[in-house]
Amino acid sequence: MTLPEGTNGQDAITDVHGLRVGHAGAAGPGALSGTTVVLAPEGGVVAAVDVRGGGPGTRETDALDPRNVVQRIDAVVLTGGSAYGLDAATGVMAWLAERNRGVRVGPEPSQVVPVVPAACVFDLGRGGDFTARPDASTGRAAVAAAAASGDRAKVGTGAVGAGTGAVAGGLRGGVGTASTVLESGITVGALVVVNAVGAAVDPTTGVPYGSYFEAGRPAFPSPAVHEAALRRLAEAREASVPPSLNTTLAVVATDAVITRAQAQKVAGTAHDGIARAVRPVHLMNDGDTVFALSTGARELPEGSGPLALNEILAAGADLVTRAIVRAVLAAPAGLRGAGGDFPSYRELYGGDAGAYSR
Predict the structure, then answer these.
(1) Which tens digit of pLDDT belongs to each residue from 228-248?
(2) What mean pLDDT is predicted for residues 213-235?
(3) Do residues 157 and 176 make contact, with C-beta atoms less than 8 angstroms apart?
(4) Secondary structure E strands in 67-185
(5) Closest alpha carbon to 77 in 161, 17, 157, 133
(6) Is 336 exposed, middle or buried (0-12, 13-18, 19+ CB in 10 A)?
(7) How do residues 130-185 score in pLDDT, each as one tens digit?
(8) Enclosing H/E stretch for 25
(9) pLDDT score for 303
(10) Residue 354 CB partners (closer than 8 Å, separation 6+)
(11) Is residue 357's pLDDT more than 50?
């Protein structure tokens, strides 16, 4: 299934009406990390999660199990800083609690407990300071930015938020997003943070793996450009200490009315989108995690029964693939400093990289 681009608003996860995205960076001169928050509309959203990586760093993901009591959530946090960065969710919780948003646990409107699932990527030391990482203040800044962004706002991509210090297969990674409107009128969107131990680019051609799944034949970089890119990447890898832990995170969202169990199926199938665009995936030092959200604004098509979910399952995986390609292309410059040498795709391939810009 190949999805058309630009069919809905910003071609971003915020095209799912009601969802907002905010980014914030960790503080400090040696910091190269941050937090990204996907904020739900008032009343929350149905949510689920599927964790496939062998080294995940997560918070409150057990609450999303369809067998458990939590029915809706108000935000998802994606953050750098490894397990330390999960503290960013504390700031998001505080922001929500101040607005009486969360699971009601008492008679007063203020007696709520916000449920804020979170997942992290490993980027410790990328800016030179191992201790510079997101905290509660970073999470608060990110959720405030999301709230202030407006409806169907443009989403920052590349080295922003949780993607600030991201690396993918030795290249600079980051944040990417995409969306589509299906024939049924249902909107599906995806947001990713690509920080993978695997590669997002085919070393034999220089083509981003995910581009093979777009419509038409991908444009290949010239042999001379590709050879120079391989030499530069090899030099960069020799100059850098290989990161020990990596992760690709994704949020897939839809405005369709689906159950929590169906949302969990969406999250699981979306991992196929990671596997198409990053190779290898789901290793023991990855923490690959996908969240699925539903705002429940539009009914599934009648007459198809449970099979009505299929178009959302297929679209979610395709959008994750596309968003990963965009994340890799979004960084105009590489990252070189105390934390390592990580060139960007555009730095390596120059004008040839434009063939994959949408």
Answers:
(1) 998 888 888 877 766 556 799
(2) 85
(3) yes
(4) 75-79, 103-104, 112-113, 118-120, 167-168, 171-172, 174-181
(5) 161
(6) middle
(7) 999 999 999 999 999 999 999 999 999 999 999 999 999 889 999 999 999 999 99
(8) strand 20-25
(9) 73
(10) none
(11) no
Instruction: Check if the beta carbon of residue 46 is closer than 8 Å to that of residue 19.
Output: no
* β-bridge mates for residue 298, sequence order: 256
Three-state secondary-structure class, residue 131: coil
Residue 168 burial (C-beta neighbours within 10 Å; 0-12, 13-18, 19+) = buried
Return the closest-CA partner of residue 248 out of 290, 276, 206. Answer: 290
H or E, element range at 329 = helix 310-330
Pairing of the two strands 34-39 and 20-25: antiparallel
Please, are residues 173 and 200 in contact by the beta-carbon 8 Å criterion? yes
Residue 297: in which H helix or E strand, if any? Answer: strand 289-298
Taking each helix axis as running N to C, give the angle between helix 88-98 and helix 136-148, from 0 to 180 degrees, rounded to the nearest 10: 50
Where does residue 230 fall: left (phi above 0), alpha (psi -120 to 50 degrees), or beta otherwise?
A: alpha
Residue 128 φ then ψ, to 5°: 105, -20
Closest of 212, 204, 309 to residue 252, by C-alpha: 309
**Cα(149)–Cα(131) distance, rounded to whole angstroms?**
30
Whether pLDDT at 249 is above 60: yes
